[in-house]
Amino acid sequence: MKKIFDEDVIYKFEPDMEPVSQIEPGELVEFETRDCFSGQIKDEEKTMEEIDMSKSNPATGPLKVKGAEPGDFLKVDILDITLPDWGVTAIAPGEGVLGDKIDTAETVIPEIRGDVCYFDGVKISLNPMVGIIGVAPEEETFSSWSQGRHGGNLDTVDICKGSSVYLPVKQDGGLLALGDCHGSMGDGEVCVTGLEISSDVLTRVDIVDGPGIDWPVVSKEDKLAVMCSSGTVDEAIEKSVSSAVEILSENRDLEYEKAYMISSLSVDFRISQVVNPKVTVRASIPKEILDAESIFD
Amino acid sequence: MKKIFDEDVIYKFEPDMEPVSQIEPGELVEFETRDCFSGQIKDEEKTMEEIDMSKSNPATGPLKVKGAEPGDFLKVDILDITLPDWGVTAIAPGEGVLGDKIDTAETVIPEIRGDVCYFDGVKISLNPMVGIIGVAPEEETFSSWSQGRHGGNLDTVDICKGSSVYLPVKQDGGLLALGDCHGSMGDGEVCVTGLEISSDVLTRVDIVDGPGIDWPVVSKEDKLAVMCSSGTVDEAIEKSVSSAVEILSENRDLEYEKAYMISSLSVDFRISQVVNPKVTVRASIPKEILDAESIFD
Fold this sequence. Notes:
The structure is a homodimer. The first copy, chain A, has about 300 residues and is mainly beta.
């Protein structure tokens, strides 16, 4: 099995990134990932304001998938996300939805035990997930904090063990990188951090044909979620509704208006995150309303 | 059992509404509700543009609950939501998230069979819910299309059979009205309608002390959702994050900053609806992180 270690990280997704490793389609790959602060915060005395933020949000990679070409999708099966025995949550003035009400930076280091963590005496269930996952973009360079059609800092709770992430390939080989795992996070990630952890993420990476949309998609049990990012929540909602209507129109051979109405009846438009440079909203489409034979593999 | 028939409807929530019926706290009450078009659309030939929209979004009531006073909460247990054998979904130019892309008004009348409906050959699972539920407001008069601290057109999928809705009482007797039921709706209600139905809604209505917040709350199995409405999604998110932080601070005796971080780790901020005069976002708090003894009854 291929393993990529956390010495090999990127802080931006660039069209012309150099791969640090390569695989044949369908191989298992383990990504060793750093936490979002590159391990610079290990105790509650240290805050976000005292570290080198140029080393925040590292993504391990990039990995070249032989044969992947623009127009393909990389299919990344998330097979496992290991948990350490602690994580870090931090706030700072100006950060997150209520940043204006925060006067001083603070850090908490919750202990992880089994499938829960203990935060100041409050027991919180874990939902381990991958925050950053993306490929080389088409033209623009994106900070690893940001998001786009290439993926990036999607911070979507559905990107968890048992899910498959589909990323639209823009450059030969795809050039996959991932990191910024969370032990737990709620929809919104409202204070700007989740329970930030280092982790080993086991994946299987393959090449597939995708549906005619140009955004990352995550497939999970009974739902398919299209993850659209934009500058405002309203814009991200509009993009995600358009994407859902496109998928339904094509997949069920429906006219635009009918697909729009079905989206209103059956698709959940959910907030992924609202605190990074862009915001991410996902259209969560029940698989029961899709023709399973004709969407992805 | 008390029953309020659908001749008694309101189209606005007013501070000085006259009750049409009254009960002792804890009584069962059935509300006969009209669909959101007051039954004016019964076939696919008729559109939203051809009906009297002043008769849209009727709410059955108001019901006086003896002894309810400002500072109390009405607790409305939703015990049943009956389903008819058809519903109506409609779009019109300018309505909903993609209204700019719609040229002509259209109506679909899906057939309801058991727990699914059939929309143009697409089978959709039902999630019956109450769209409008509210009490007399403090000072302002609200159209039944709108939302506020009194409740109103919350269009929140969690307001379903088995849930309890808590509404902050502003006027003596509370003055409860509800209607606008949906056989199915996704988070967002993006085209402006769900599967609109007439229904009999069986409730038990009681008076309780509430937590120190001033928004409607819905309690469902393992989650408590605070429903905040405002002019933009961003504003509604900020209000809902503030509400979650207030509840957590008070309920778990946490400092503001810690409650903010826990909200980021564990609370799901979800879109209820984005198409009515205001938008509604709910803070969905896992009950496991709350001290159950000290929140509501």
